[in-house]
Amino acid sequence: MYPARVDDKGRLKLPVVFQEFFAALPEKKLFVTSLDRRIGHIYPIQAWRQSQKFFQEFRENPKVARNVAFNAADLGADSEVDGQGRILLPPELRRTLGIENQSVKLCAYNGHVEIYSEAVYERRRAEAAVTPEEDLDVLQRAGLQ
Predict the structure, then answer these.
(1) Which of 97, 83, 122 is nearest to 42 (CA)?
(2) Could you read off the pLDDT of 51-87 as tens digits, one per residue?
(3) Exposure on the CB side of residue 102, measured as CA atoms within 13 A
(4) Three-state SS for 59?
């Protein structure tokens, strides 16, 4: 979990570890969005293309796929890391997540970076602290080393 800040112009300054990760990718384009209107996501464009394909091919509940894809399109935009290690976040995304000119937490997960507002971070932190031993036990029994 890395602290970061969204400045008054809507730019998110990435920690060096994320700057290096994105710089090493063959394609520099990113897609910034939210799937649930609570947590932001920064996808390398190749990972985002895979998500789009998943939405198109998901047949178990097409309405759910359409809804999540709609949220992503509604709040999302292409972006790139600038020379100072910042990415511009779409205005509607910043407003919806409540992160305009605010501190945020960043976390790498499943090939993308998640953006948590302070409020969402505190809720997730409380949720994760309820049953940590039991949660870990379940995963260790499933093969987590």
Answers:
(1) 97
(2) 999 999 999 999 999 999 999 999 999 999 999 999 9
(3) 18
(4) coil
